[in-house]
Amino acid sequence: MKKIIIPILFFILSATAGKAQTILPQQYQDLVKKLVASFPKNATVINNNSGTTSSTTLIDFAKSMLGIPYRYATSNPKVGFDCSGFVSYVFSNFGFKVPRSSREFSGTGKETTLENAKVGDVLIFTGTNSRVRTIGHVGIIYSIDENGIKFIHASSGKAHSVTITELNGHYKDRFLKAVSIL
Fold first, then answer.
1. Both 15 and 86 in a single domain?
2. Are residues 87 and 114 in the same domain?
3. Residues 172, 82: one domain?
4. Cα(119)–Cα(97) distance, rounded to whole angstroms?
5. What is the distance between the alpha carbons of residues 182 and 173, in angstroms, rounded to a whole number?
6. Could you tell me if 107 and 161 lie in one domain?
7. Are 124 and 83 in contact (CB under 8 A)?
8. Any signal peptide, and if so, which residues (predicted)?
9. Residue 95 near residue 49 (C-beta atoms within 8 A)
10. Which residues touch 134 (CB under 8 Å, ≥6 apart)?
11. Cβ count near 180 (within 10 Å)
12. CA 58 to chain centre
């Protein structure tokens, strides 16, 4: 009896595994359809750098990570982010290839003035010591209004997480330049 059951179980498991492999692509396709349907109606989605993406979509995605802890040299939302890991993760989600290191942002995108900067542009700052004028921090412009500019970034400071900060005092002194990626 055992000799008959073992081949039957093997056959059933083999047949089931084959069906699971053919179902998976359809489930993946359904998941993609649901994700696309969840984007705001006015949003445009990037397709392998050949299309465009709106700053609203980019910021909404970045905002979904508020509170994720700061973690040096990390770009994984399950573990945490450092500043450039966060910026890189957000842009790469939309098909943009941007540096993983904050220092490498000096040659990325198109440089713009702070007055001409737009939501979704990347702000580049010095490290914590504003007197040392080398790149040490990056963030993404979150909003611009009559009260000034706010940016979203992974902060190693008081918030010690992904947070939204005003571009004032401390960060204004550390500001080096803004670059457009979108």
1. no
2. yes
3. yes
4. 19
5. 26
6. yes
7. no
8. 1-20
9. yes
10. 103, 126, 127
11. 16
12. 8
Measured between alpha carbons, how far is 115 from 171 in angstroms, rounded to an integer?
Answer: 16
Please check whether residues 114 and 24 belong to one and the same domain.
no
User: Which domain range does residue 133 map to?
Assistant: 55-180
Quote the tokens at residue 77.
């939302």
Is there a contact between 54 and 44 (Cβ–Cβ < 8 Å)? yes
Q: How far is CA 6 from the centre of its chain?
A: 50
Each residue's pLDDT, cut to its tens digit, for the chain (182 residues) gives 444 444 444 444 444 444 333 333 555 445 544 544 444 433 333 433 445 679 999 999 999 999 999 999 999 999 999 999 999 999 999 999 999 999 998 899 999 999 999 999 999 999 999 999 999 999 999 999 999 999 999 999 999 999 999 999 899 999 999 999 98
Same domain for 32 and 69, yes or no, is no
The verdict on 15 and 87 lying in the same domain is no
Continuous segment of H or E residues that includes residue 76: strand 75-76
139, 81 Cβ separation under 8 angstroms: no
Give yes or no: residues 75 and 28 share one domain.
no
The secondary structure of the chain in percent helix, strand, coil, rounded to multiples of 5, reads 35, 25, 40
